[in-house]
Amino acid sequence: MREGLHTLLDALPDIDVLASTESQMETLQLARTQRPDVVLIGTSEVAAAVRLVRRLVDEARSPDAAPGSVVFHLRGDDQGVAELLRAGSRGLLNRDATSAQVIAATRAVASGRAAVGPDVVDSLVEWFRDGSAAPRPESGAEAGALTGRERQVLSLVGQGLSVDDIAGDLYIGASTVRTHLHRIRHKVGLRDRAQLVAFAYRTGLVRHVA
Questions:
Q1: Cβ-Cβ contacts under 8 Å for 55 (sequence gap 6 or more)
Q2: Distance (Å, rounded) from C-alpha 123 to C-alpha 35?
Q3: How far is it, in rounded angstroms, from Cα 109 to Cα 111?
Q4: Predicted local distance difference test score (pLDDT) of residue 89
């Protein structure tokens, strides 16, 4: 799988593959020295992927400076999906994702957007339909601390829009959007975009998207 991904992405004119490795320690070292925009992670153990994503985020100068992680997970592992989002993963794809899905996710995460595969979207739809994704009380309380505009921004983040897209949608400047995102993170104690997306789903701010 690793060699196939290397060949696939390295053939694209807008993507430079810096390195590939089977070692998590080497991955962390390469992240420190090469400062990639995206790290693709494939492992059979969700716990190992969660630890690696957390280390990549923790070792960055700031959450925004951390490389975006695209993790290949096993179909049907809903708990693993939740743990990876909480850890800070920006992209989630099934291990049998198509080449087009891998390329699209890599480009999306490199540009600061979240990217999830169709199976993850299906899981979210099912969670909402059966009521298991109802907002937790503490999440509702945290969301209640946000202003109306901050809730609008968070809802659009949850839908996968970039900072520029949100600015255009709300007719405000990109710097204003970043200020709102900074305040949201501070109020609810989140580190990065992936956690904002998960929080937006958990609090029901993007329930209508499904």
A1: 24, 28
A2: 33
A3: 5
A4: 86
pLDDT 10s digits, 114-131: 888 877 777 666 655 555
Please tell me the pTM assigned to this model: 0.63
The residue with tokens 């190992």 is: 48
User: How far apart are the C-alpha atoms of 166 and 8, rounded to whole Å?
Assistant: 31
Give the pLDDT score at 119: 74
Joined together, the tokens standing for residue 69 give: 């992680």
The amino acid occupying position 6 is: H
Distance CA 53, CA 115 (A): 15
In sequence order, the 6+-apart residues with CB closer than 8 A to the CB of 152 are 170
| Amino acid residing at 59 | E
**Distance set, CA 159 to CA 11, 12, 151, 180 (Å):** 30, 27, 12, 16
DSSP assigned state of 111? T
Asked if 86 and 195 count as a contact pair (C-beta separation under 8 A), the reply is yes
Closest to 156 measured CA to CA, from 208, 110, 78? 208
User: Which candidate, 180, 148, 142, places its Cα nearest to that of 161?
Assistant: 180
The Cα angle at residue 188 between residues 92 and 204, in degrees rounded to 5: 60
Q: What angle do CA 56, 13, 119 make, to 5 degrees?
A: 55
Candidates 71, 137, 67; CA nearest to 102 is: 71
Pick out the chain residues at pLDDT < 70.
1, 63-64, 75-77, 123-142, 194, 206-210
